[in-house]
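Dear Dr. L.,

I hope this message finds you well. Following up on our conversation about the binding site, I have prepared a predicted three-dimensional model of the protein together with N-oxalylglycine. For your records, I am including the exact sequence and ligand specification that went into the calculation, followed by the structure tokens. Please feel free to forward this to your student if that is useful.
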Amino acid sequence: MAGDSELDPYRMVQELAEDGDEIPERFICKDTPYGLITASLPLMDIPVIDLSRLSSSSATTDEELEKLQSALSSWGCFQVINHGIEFCLLDELRENGRQFLKLPMKDKQKYARAASEIEGYGNDMILYENQTLDWTDRIYLLVSPEDGRKLQYWPEDPKSFRVVLEEYTTRVKMIVETLLKSMAKALNLPDNSFLNQYGERPVMYTRYNFYPPCPRPDLVHGVKPHADGSAITVLQQDEEVEGLQFLKDNQWFRVPIRPHALIVNVGDEIEVMSNGIFKSPLHRALTNSAKERISVATFCSPEVGKEIGSVEELINDKNPRLYKTYKTVKDYPEIFFKYYQQGKRPIDAVKLYSS
Ligand code: OGA
Ligand code: NI
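The resulting structure of the complex is given below.
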């Protein structure tokens, strides 16, 4: 079963999956500190937030803010409905990923990620000799700020790939701004407390995650347990195939599929800004032996040069500052990828006290 044939670092997981039952040794997870890799788990009672209630000020707004506060201080995530993005745009976004995946490998390789870079079409980045690899291929693109886009990595086939992703980016940017305002309100802070740190030119990456079928879903991760380094992550799940799980109180829960809802989770930057009130949750994705799975994640972070720190109004004698302040895009990505690939939590690097 477990082949230890030399792994060609440029060989895509999609090709390994098409080859048959052999799983190269480097993908096999030997250590599961957060619990076994299994889908036999309870379904999560995931909070559902109605964005239209947050953005209008109506009689139901306060109720929705309370739900938001409760969701983020317990799970760190929720499903968002009535988000205003047309369902056909969401379908097209995911479908474009599926169409791209069907292209011959030589056509996809035009967008290949360079070994040392993040952006492009590629598999798990290898940073460590003993790193266990995730069973996933990706297209990873900087989508904001617009003048930072590297269009050479943006697929031109299918034809609507670029325009659909551009439109989706605009919409996600607006949703995140609404959420950041609401999150401040939910903590009785001035509306712009988080937005001021986030800025007007956020750094946003969109990542298509492709999880080919895997002959032994119990031995590998689609994505290993991690928390996101972003302020907020917006994720469109596969419309049919489950796989995402969140950890709460040492127990994994499966995220249910709710067509056209988006999953939102806060990342480490919001945990820091909220001085630990909002939790950046650990999550992972599992593979499936029969079906491929596609998800589209957009990681939204403050603009370049912003300093991230716990909002002053949240600090007092009872609640001391828990995290160091740091420069977002400058300091964190390097810490993030190193910690992540070693299965450690990058946020520990900015904690003032070890817990
Ligand atoms: C991620 C992630 C989950 C999924 O890309 O950071 O957590 O369901 N993805 O693909
Ligand atoms: Ni994630």
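In brief: Confidence is low (pLDDT under 50) at residues 1-6.

With kind regards,
A. P.
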